[in-house]
Each structure stands twice: as structure tokens, then as C-alpha cells.
Amino acid sequence: MGKKGGLKHLKRKPAPRVWAVERKKYTWIVKPSPGPHPIAQCLPLTLILRDFLKLAKTAKEAEKIVAQEKVYVDGKIRRDASYPAGIMDVITLPEAERSYRVLPSQKGLILHPIEKDEASFKLCRIENKTTVENANVQLNLHDGTSILVHVADPKNPSEDTYRTLGTLKINPKTKEILGYIKLVKGAPVLLIGGKNVGKHGRIIELEEREGQKRRSQLVTMEDKNGNHFQTTVNMVFVVGETEPFVSLPEVK
């Protein structure tokens, strides 16, 4: 009888390129557990504690730190050392009084240090929306979260102001919606894919063509130095209305 399911182990050489780790010194590397982010867009907690933050020398030490409930992801204790943390997730280490946000960069995923007040919220991109019972709207977010928006009048759902690829500002603990950011011209954005991944700036043009899928529409972005970049809507993550709601690393 053949083996069922995927492999439980992972070698360093074929590991996702977004992991900035040494690939030839050792053979094996920790494989993320199934979770809210795909393997090519996440970092397992063991990798974060050992290879990025240098708080552990070995995987076993990292597992002990996690088992002692010293690591929070989006305000929730995580006890699985292989738990996958992805883009915009907030990693909090209360004993060390440190907080980080997972962000994309030219070198792969990075941990960007943030202040305590910024760690109290998270930005999530709306990937899909569906209508459920009683005409309520369910928003499916990029981190696997689903939020139900209750509609008072099914015949006139004025509360449904959300559109896919827009961004929600939410409380990661309660899932309460704190704000909604539209994908419009002039909005500050972060590029989460493509050859210019990690760069951020402002939308100066949105090219809309009849019959074209919205995710495939072209976006022209300008950074603070006046450089222009062009990509598709699917690679864009809106991070604010006029100014970014989150701190972003400097891009060289």
C-alpha cells in the first residue's frame, strides 16, 4: 500500500527561497506545519527563534521556548514550534519586550521590529467575499481568517462596503474590524511579489480594461525617490489611506 500524505521533513536546498538561511552547511531544516499561510510565504517559529532572532542555538531549544508559552502570534499563544507565521503576522515575545511584523523584502521574508502600540493591530488583505445565510457577507482574508459582516437589510446591504483586494485593519485577538482601506489611486502600497517585492510607495495609476480580471490589472507605483514600478494588482498590498498604518523598512 502506498504512502498517504505529504512528507514530514524538508531539506535546506529546496526550501523556499524566501527563507534567508544557510543552505549548504546542514542537510535538513524544519518544515512548517499546515496552517494559514502556504509554505512559500511563511516562516516556522523554530526558524524565527533560532536563525533570525538567535534566541536559541538548536531546534530543541526553540521548541522549549515555544512549549513554555513565550511566543505569541497575532496575540495568541502558539505551542507548535513549526507554526507558520506569514506576511503581516505579528510576533510578540513578552518576556523580551519585543514585537515584530513579518514583511517581504528583496532577500526574502524578514522580521521588522515594531512598537507596542503597532503590535495591537494587523492588516489583512481581502482575498474573497461570499454571501451567506440572511444575506450576511463573509470576508476571506489572506491569513486564512474569515470575518462575518452582519447586514441589517438584505434588500439594501449598505453595510457591505468591502471589495476584494482591499485591506482590513483588525484587532488580531477579537477579529474586530478597526478600519477598511480601499485599493485606489494615491493609496500607499507594499509589493508582496514579483521582482520588486518588498518595495513600497504610492499608486499613481490603475489601469482598468473591460473584460480583464481585476487581479491581472496593471498598477503603476512611485516610491519616495520618484522611481516608478509596474506590477499587477495581485502583487499589491494596500497599507494605508494617505500614509502607511504600519512602519515599513527602508528600501535601498
Determine the fraction of residues in helical runs and give it as a percent range: under 10%
**Mean pLDDT level:** 90
Strand order of the largest sheet: 5-4-7-8-9
* CATH fold label of the largest domain: Structural Genomics Hypothetical 15.5 Kd Protein In mrcA-pckA Intergenic Region, Chain A
Secondary-structure class: mainly beta
What is the strand tally? 19
Low-confidence stretches: none
Helix and strand string, N-terminal first?
EEEHHEEEEEEEEEEEEEEEE
SSE map:
Layout: E1 10-11, E2 28-29, E3 42-44, H1 45-52, H2 59-67, E4 72-73, E5 76-77, E6 84-86, E7 90-93, E8 98-105, E9 108-113, E10 122-131, E11 137-141, E12 146-149, E13 167-170, E14 177-181, E15 188-191, E16 200-206, E17 218-222, E18 228-232, E19 236-238
Structure, described:
The protein has 252 residues and is mainly beta. The chain folds into 3 domains: 10-117, Structural Genomics Hypothetical 15.5 Kd Protein In mrcA-pckA Intergenic Region, Chain A (Roll); 121-180, Ribosomal protein S4, central domain (OB fold (Dihydrolipoamide Acetyltransferase, E2P), Beta Barrel), CATH 2.40.50.740; 188-238, SH3 type barrels (Roll). It contains 2 helices and 19 strands. It has helices spanning 45-52, 59-67; strands at 10-11, 28-29, 42-44, 72-73, 76-77, 84-86, 90-93, 98-105, 108-113, 122-131, 137-141, 146-149, 167-170, 177-181, 188-191, 200-206, 218-222, 228-232, 236-238. The strands form 5 sheets. Strands 5-4-7-8-9 form a 5-stranded antiparallel beta sheet, with no helix packed on it. Strand 7 (90-93) and strand 8 (98-105) form a beta hairpin. The longest helix is centred in the N-terminal third of the chain and has 9 residues, at 59-67. The radius of gyration is 19 Å and the shape is globular. The mean pLDDT is 90.
